[in-house]
């Protein structure tokens, strides 16, 4: 295989009581738009680790990756982009948003989605899949290998 430069992003899909956690962006090109807690993967960071870091930074909660909801791929400005949406569980009950990144949050049912100003149609579709329980489960082979090694199937 040949390494290439890519734009690699992640999102945390947390569903509780048939509602999904959504956040409202406080800055950038997605200002005032809604989606799941998300962000970019740092150099040398596993995507599944990045999603938990972003969740903690944006919402002040910890979580556990339990599966995969969706993968979005695209080419933007001649650069491949991969966006991975994970199914995440949390035991935390208090959300503490980072006001520099997130201006609001809420737990939403599918029936409320038409009233949300979404980051993108793809983000809404991913949220719908999460609420429908369309999850690939995770098997962690890390202890058998020499580093981060998981399979979603």
Give the class-level CATH name: Alpha Beta
Averaged pLDDT: 94
**Lateral strand order in the biggest sheet:** 5-1-7-6-9-10
**Which residues sit in consecutive blocks of at least 5 with pLDDT less than 50?**
none
Rounded to the nearest angstrom, the radius of gyration is 15 Å
Largest sheet: 6 strands, mixed
CATH architecture: Alpha-Beta Complex
How much of the sequence lies in strands comes to 35-45%
Number of domains: 1
Shape: globular
Classify the helix fraction into a percent range: 10-25%
Distance N to C terminus: 22 Å
Output the CATH topology.
Nucleoside Triphosphate Pyrophosphohydrolase
- Class by helix and strand content? alpha+beta
Full CATH superfamily name: Nucleoside Triphosphate Pyrophosphohydrolase
Q: Note the total helix count.
A: 2
State the total count of DSSP E strands.
10
User: Would you list the SSEs in sequence order as H and E?
Assistant: EEEEEHEEEHEE
Could you describe the 3D structure shown?
This protein is 16% helix and 39% strand. The mean pLDDT is 94. The longest helix has 13 residues, at 47-59. The chain contains 2 helices and 10 strands, in the order E-E-E-E-E-H-E-E-E-H-E-E.
Q: What is the structure about, briefly put?
A:
This protein has helices at 47-59, 121-132; strands at residues 7-13, 15-16, 19-25, 34-35, 38-40, 64-76, 79-89, 102-108, 136-140, 150-152. With 153 residues, it is of the alpha+beta class.
């Amino acid at each position: 295989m040949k390494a290439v430069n890519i734009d690699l992003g992640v999102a945390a899909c947390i569903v509780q009581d048939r509602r999904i956690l959504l956040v409202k962006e406080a800055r950038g090109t997605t200002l005032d738009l809604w989606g799941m807690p998300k962000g970019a993967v740092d150099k040398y960071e596993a995507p599944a680790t990045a999603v938990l870091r972003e969740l903690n930074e944006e919402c002040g909660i910890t979580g556990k990756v339990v599966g995969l909801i969706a993968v979005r791929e695209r080419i933007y400005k001649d650069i491949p982009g991969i966006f991975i949406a994970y199914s995440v569980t949390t035991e935390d009950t208090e959300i503490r948003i980072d006001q520099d990144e997130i201006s609001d949050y809420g737990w939403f049912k599918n029936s409320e989605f038409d009233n949300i100003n979404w980051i993108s149609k793809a983000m809404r579709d991913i949220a719908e899949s999460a609420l429908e329980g369309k999850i690939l489960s995770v098997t962690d082979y890390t202890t058998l290998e020499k580093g981060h090694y998981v399979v979603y199937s």
